């Protein structure tokens, strides 16, 4: 396999070797491909786990029906948090204070 890189990427790869982070260019590319593969696998796993969590909530009847009001509440909460520079650590989309 022969791969050509843009000049900026080629320079980066060579600098990684020159700075002693890798012994050759092939190691740099292998490491990059491995990291990309692992990242994609982790995203797939996270998505699958979220779907399973959602399915379990549906089976328990722990759901909130979709409505325009719900979507507006979610949007308003997201806007408020963004304006305040808040980081959202809650993976759930529905605000905790939402009452259907």
Keywords:
0% strand; 100 residues; 2 domains; 3 helices; mainly alpha
How would you portray this structure in words?
This protein has 100 residues and is mainly α. The protein has 2 domains: 63 residues, no CATH class; 36 residues, no CATH class. It is built from 3 helices and no strands. The longest helix has 36 residues. The protein is elongated. The protein starts with 6 loop residues before the first helix and ends in a 17-residue tail after the last helix.
Largest sheet: none
Number of distinct beta strands = 0
The fraction of residues assigned to DSSP E strands is under 5%
Please give the share of residues in helix.
55-70%
Question: Ends: how far apart?
Answer: 58 Å
Number of helices: 3
- Our Rg estimate from Cα atoms comes to 22 Å
Number of domains: 2
Q: How would you name the oligomeric state of the polypeptide chains in this document?
A: single chain
Note poorly predicted spans: none
Structural class: mainly alpha
Helix/strand order: HHH
Overall geometric form: elongated
Mean of all residue-level pLDDT scores: 88
Task: Describe, in short, the structure shown.
It is built from three helices and no strands. With 100 residues, the chain is mainly alpha-helical.
